[in-house]
Amino acid sequence: ILLKRIFKRIENLMNKGKTVVLMGDLNVCKDIQDSEEALQLAKRFYSEAKGEKVSNELNFEFIKEKPERFFFNQQLSNSNFKIPNNYKGTMLDSTRFLHPSRNKMYTCWNTMKNARAVNAGSRIDYVLISKNYKDNKIKLLNSNILPEVHGSDHCPIYSDLAIDFVCDDGISVSPQVGKFEAKSFYKLINNDIMK
Is the Cβ–Cβ distance between 134 and 152 less than 8 Å? Predict the structure, then answer.
C-alpha cells in the first residue's frame, strides 16, 4: 500500500510538470537478476537457468510471484514486464538503465550469513527518476552502486544528474556544487567514505 501511495504522489507531481527523483531502500527486487537467492533457486530447479542467462518466462514468473514486485515493474519505464492496461511506466530505474545486463549488482546482504563476502545479496535500493526528466532539461550522467563502502548491510547508491536551471526571466543559472556531505562531516572508523 505504501508503494501505491508513493507512486500516486509521484504521478500527481508529474502531472504538474515536475521531475521527481525517488531514492532509497524500496525493499523490492525488480527482476530475478536482482536476487541471488532467486537465481540460485532457479538454477537448481529449472534446466533452462543452468547458464548465466535466465529466460524471460522465468523472470516473468519471478515478477508475478509477489504483488509488490508486479506493481513496481508496472511503474518503471525500463521494466522487462509490461502488462497492457496496467502499465504506467512513470519512473526510470537509473542504475539498471545504464547497466542493463550487469550481474550481481546487489545493494543489500544478509549479515547473519556473511553474504556480502561472496556477494550473495539483493538489489532493493534504487535511484528512480521520472520519465519526463529530459523535458525539464535534466541529463542522467551516471548511476551506480558502491559495494566497496562498508558500514551497513546496504551499500550506497548514487546518480549524477546535470540540471540546467533557468530563471523566470530566461537567464541560465549555474548551481554551485556543494561539498559531499558524508565526506565532509562523517568519518568512518577505518576509512574515509570516499575510499
Answer: no
